[in-house]
Amino acid sequence: MRWWSLANLVSNLGTWMQLTVQNLLVLQLTGSAAATGLSLSVQAAPGLLFGLLGGAVVDRMPRKLVAAVSQALLALVAFTTAVLVALGLLTVPVLMGLAAVTGLIATVDGPATALLGNDLVPEEDVPSAIALGSVVHSVGRLAGTALAAVGIAAIGTAGAYAVNGASFLFVTAVIPFLRPARHAREAARAAAARPRGADRREERGGLSFFLNRRALVALAVIAAVSAVLGRNYQLTLATLVTGPLHGGAGAYGLVSALLAVGGIVGAVVAGRLRRPTVRIVALLAAAGGLLQVFAGLSPALMVLLVMVVPMAVVESVSDTATTTVLQTDPPPHMRGRVLGVWRSLSTSWNLAGPPLLGLLVQGAGERGALVLGGLAIAAVIGAGFLAHRRRSAVARPVPAPAPAVVPEPAFQTAA
After folding, report:
1. Residue 148: half-sphere exposure toward Cβ, Cα within 13 Å
2. Are the CB atoms for 338 and 217 separated by under 8 Å?
3. Using an 8 Å Cβ cutoff, are 136 and 11 in contact?
4. pLDDT per position in the chain (415 positions), as tens?
5. Environment class of residue 299 by beta-carbon count within 10 Å: exposed (0-12), middle (13-18) or buried (19+)?
6. What is the C-alpha to C-alpha distance for residues 285 and 378, in angstroms, rounded to an integer?
7. Of the candidates 380, 271, 376, 368, which has an alpha carbon nearest to the alpha carbon of residue 317?
8. How far apart are CA 17 and CA 24, in angstroms?
């Protein structure tokens, strides 16, 4: 697990460095912010279209093999881009095509690498492993974004892509030496022993399985509402800081840094959750919505800075708990499909969220978007709790009335 965490950190550093460089590269080639956004959408689109297929591949094939091949293919794409940049042959259509290929590979790589990390620890330590992965992701995002500027100055754009390719190769080299824990080996043996064609409908129906699992549907509703109305802080807090609070780029940079620190702290705290549930995720999301309301009402920048850290902590704990439920609630042979369905759903609301939230900001103002969004999150979760309680009351069996006791006639003795 230590080797896997190190490999993931190296890969995350390279990935975030490349993503930052890619945005700058599109801007250099086109001079258009819209084209930059389009490149990100093109890379995300395969997750929306092929997430279910990617999850099915992960469930049907050996996990280590799938992860190693997908990491090697990502390295090949990064090296190809580096060569094209170095030779001056990279055009915007080619870059868009490479971004689409990267997104397609990620539909398999995402669930494979996530579940592979869980296979390396005892089953009771899976929540801690997921939390550790969240910490690694957050640290990699911070450091990778910072390294992008240094990398461009030191080794150029082509060099930055080459470094990312090398980071993928490092992960590929580590994977063959990973030894799954006992529960993962037993699950693999059970999957191999399943009769050919057994539970074929369940095997094919990742989406139907997801929709018939109330806990997973509830998670999706919570995540969708939170993502659209509460998680796009790069938009809502940026407009709040630079608008009503009269801060500049430096002030928003401080807010962003505090959000990142809170995310890391939250991931560490989430590692203490041994068995997170949907109820815990819902309570955390509602708390995040209410904190967002108070942030929107902040009268000064200092008040907002105080609110930002708990907002990020709650968001990070909620996200880690959600990931844990997604990766532990389904049976082992369906977890890849569940993650594939989740990738398709999350891509849809992540693509739709920023434009919808932008319209809310335009209509209700910077403060109004935060306040209304937070109240809507809390209201949806409160309604969900009431509906769940009502359903439980209806489903609870009514005890049968006790049979009436008929008194036996008293015996009379003869006088």
Report:
1. 21
2. no
3. no
4. 999 999 989 988 888 887 778 777 877 777 766 676 677 778 888 888 888 888 888 888 888 999 999 999 999 999 999 999 999 888 888 988 998 999 999 999 989 998 898 889 888 888 888 888 888 887 887 787 777 767 777 788 888 889 889 999 999 999 999 988 877 777 766 666 655 554 444 445 678 889 888 899 999 999 999 988 888 787 788 788 888 888 877 787 788 788 888 888 888 888 777 788 899 999 999 999 999 999 999 999 999 999 999 999 999 899 889 988 998 888 888 888 999 999 999 988 888 887 888 888 888 888 999 999 999 999 999 999 998 888 877 766 655 555 555 554 444 444 3
5. exposed
6. 8
7. 271
8. 11
**Burial of 35: CB neighbours in 10 Å, binned 0-12, 13-18, 19+:** middle
Q: Give dist(CA 82, CA 4) in Å, integer.
A: 26
Owner of token pair 């996990």: 63
Q: What value, to the nearest 5°, has the Cα angle with vertex 262 and ends 14 and 371? A: 115
Q: What is the DSSP letter of 194?
A: S
DSSP for 70-132, please give it: HHHHHHHHHHHHHHHHHHT---HHHHHHHHHHHHHHHHHHHHHHHHHHHTTS-GGGHHHHHHH
User: Would you say 99 and 75 are in contact if contact means Cβ atoms under 8 Å apart?
Assistant: no
CA gap 385, 184 in Å, rounded: 35
Spatial contact of 385 and 260, defined as CB atoms under 8 Å apart = no
Q: How far is CA 99 from CA 40, 106, 157, in A?
A: 8, 11, 16
Q: Is the CB of residue 284 less than 8 Å from the CB of residue 314? A: yes
CA–CA separation, 211 vs 196, rounded Å? 25
Q: Are 206 and 55 in contact (CB under 8 A)?
A: yes
Q: How far apart are CA 316 and CA 84, in angstroms?
A: 38
133 phi and psi, to 5 degrees?
-60, -35
Q: Would the pTM of this model clear 0.85, i.e. be above it?
A: no
What are the structure tokens assigned to 411, written together?
A: 């015996």
Q: Tokens at residue 312, please?
A: 């990020």
- 292 vs 375: CA distance, rounded Å: 9
Structure tokens, 318:
């909620």
Q: What single letter denotes the amino acid at residue 164? A: N
